[in-house]
Amino acid sequence: MKMNKICAALFAAATFGLVACTDTDAKYTIPEVEAPVLVSTTPEANAAKVKRGEITIEVKYDKNVFFATKDLDKISFTGGTLISADVYGSSNVLTLTVNVPGRETACTLSIPEGVVLGPNKVPAPAVSLQFTTVALDKTPVMATSAKAMKLYDYLLANYETKSLSGMMAKESWNTDMSERVYQWTGKYPAINTFDYGHLAWSVAGANWINYGDITPVKEWADKNGIVSCMWHWNVPKEAPADYITLWSGEQDMPADWSQSVQLNNDAAKAIFATAKVGDVVRVAVKDVEEGAQAAFKHGSTWAGITPEYEYFDITGDFTMPITEDILTVLKENGLIVGGHHYVATGIYLEGEGITGVPDLGTGYAFYKDETNFDASNALIEGTWENKFFVQDLASVAGYLKLLKEADIPVLWRPLHEAAGKWFWWGKDAASFKAIWIAMFDYFKAQGLDNLIWVWTAETGDEDWYPGDQYVDIIGSDIYSKDVETCASRYVAISATYGNKMITLSECGSVGKISEQWAAGARWSWFMPWYDGEEEDGTPIVHADEAWWKDAMEQSYVITRDQVPSME
């Protein structure tokens, strides 16, 4: 048995050896493979608006390629710094990272033949790619007035070498805070920002705010101060009633006809001026006694507004349809409501298309969680939101026209901080952009060629950007952040929107301007918010005297006395 096993083993070994010799003699033909062919590059060849900073370049071939990272030094890049190159996994794309800090920089990438290999180590042909980084936009998107163009050119000329000082008006329509900066430093800020936040009150004729009086704005501009305007857009908190309240309260009408409700002042006449034939005046009443009578009287003569309304019996609420003759009297003289043996509780103007006016004390808000105003309805005709949207646009355009007629260019910054979603216009990106563009188109149609448009960015909110054709300058609002955060915000926004100037459009409790500048934050201008108080009276200080003195002492900070005339 042992001898048989030995013989079998020897036979198997001989057989294996014979097979092994046969395999060694076999020949294989390696198939020929064509060299990789360039398909495309990102950026495209000769691209002219490539963002500056860190740029990813992709070189795409028609088949998988190979690259040895040790050969990085064989690739040349001019215009910036080549950081890395690699083919990730099994791929037909060579990915390179470069850094180009400058604008309008001509760049060339050169990959020699054979540095990139295809299958079977077939060398790929040489690749040469040229592109240019983005330039600052040289022409404003809407402004065509001579002074607005000069202001835009002035901002361009000083961008990243100088920074303009700016200050926010206190309670919207003055230069009080800029005066305080002057008291502290002996210099005025170059820019004063005004706010149309109390639009509804101004339109209603409030005695404490009147945007129709442009005196504070003109006085600032006449001293070569730059004018900036924004708009905390207050809208009704709720859908207004389908009537206008002419009067509300309780007025007893005694038996001797001695009491009445008089609607013959300017405010009442202004409402009657909006009335039309077919509308109705309705009087709400209570405690109507037997034999009660009422009267609608001429606002000046106290005679019946027409004979049939001299006096008439009532048992409850009563009305007066408005005819052509009655409308004339109401507009010119107003109305007096009288009578006896009832209590009047309200007088209203009703009719098709009439919308009530919210209470100026409590009926308006701009924070999203304080109003039912739906931004997505603002452009839909027939909605109450659209009615107020159109009405307010017309009102603020009328006020801005006063500045245009005075030949005052304006840095216009509406609808700010939208992506923060705390204002009603920040519902979502789609409705915000639609509202911005609608405002832009309307103002353009109104001939407001004195506006330079400033859009306020948050971080990572590119979806909210209206588009290069609707924006001149990008702003950033920063509060309670240190120098490093401010500088990194500037770098990030500047990299994203490389063709636009970047400004610190609002700030409060941030690092000193000298320290921000040293850290690389080259804002076109900066603007602290005005100081105020908490509800308990605790002071709110956004920029104190030391902060302002530091800013105004810097050679690169422009003050009002250094701003040239835009004539």
List the helices and strands and how they pair.
Blueprint: H1 2-24, E1 38-42, E2 47-50, E3 53-61, E4 76-78, E5 81-86, E6 93-100, E7 106-111, E8 127-133, H2 146-158, E9 163-168, H3 176-185, E10 191-195, H4 199-203, H5 215-222, E11 226-231, E12 235-236, E13 243-253, E14 261-263, H6 266-272, E15 280-286, E16 293-298, E17 312-313, E18 318-321, H7 324-333, E19 335-340, E20 342-350, E21 364-365, H8 384-405, E22 410-414, H9 429-445, E23 451-457, E24 473-479, H10 483-496, E25 501-508, H11 513-518, E26 525-528, E27 532-533, E28 539-540, H12 545-552, E29 557-558
Parallel strand pairs: 2-8, 9-10, 9-26, 9-29, 10-11, 11-22, 22-23, 23-24, 24-25, 25-26
Antiparallel strand pairs: 1-3, 3-6, 4-7, 5-6, 7-8, 12-21, 13-20, 14-19, 15-18, 15-20, 16-17, 16-19, 27-28
Helix pairs in contact: 6-7
